[in-house]
Write a structure and sequence with these properties.
The chain has 116 residues and is mainly beta. It is built from no helices and eight strands. The protein has a single domain, classed as Jelly Rolls, CATH 2.60.120.
Length: 116
């Protein structure tokens, strides 16, 4: 892990991506203890299981379509141009309906995402 837990100016091409779960590729971009920026490339059919985390999450769908869901069975479709927010500890998951590119921020940072 980056001991300073901080990454300033960078370009996506100089960073490694991590595939987890299958079909979901995350590149952790700039971050500090207070805020983290991630880029996601998602393949049609990939799923992120229901989960929650301490960080508040904002997202913006650059391209593609995603179906978000929660434990109660509620869902919404986010297409290109859609922004969304999940509160701290709010359970959520998704299914990728079309190949997608997504930008997300987390506040504070998600420590498990600061490894790459």
């Amino acid at each position: 892990m980056n001991e300073s837990r901080e990454r300033g100016i960078c370009t996506k091409s100089e960073l490694d991506s991590v595939e987890n779960p299958p079909g979901i590729h995350r590149t952790t971009m700039a971050y500090s203890e207070e805020l983290m920026l991630c880029h996601f490339s998602m393949k049609k059919g990939a799923e992120i299981p229901l989960h929650n985390h301490q960080a508040v999450q904002n997202g913006y769908v650059v391209s593609g379509r995603l179906q978000f869901r929660n434990a109660a069975g509620n869902w919404f479709v986010a297409a290109a141009g859609t922004g969304y927010n999940f509160s701290s500890m709010q359970e959520h998951g998704l299914i990728v309906l079309e190949d997608a590119e997504v930008i997300e921020t987390f506040a504070p940072l998600r420590p498990e995402y600061a490894d790459n």
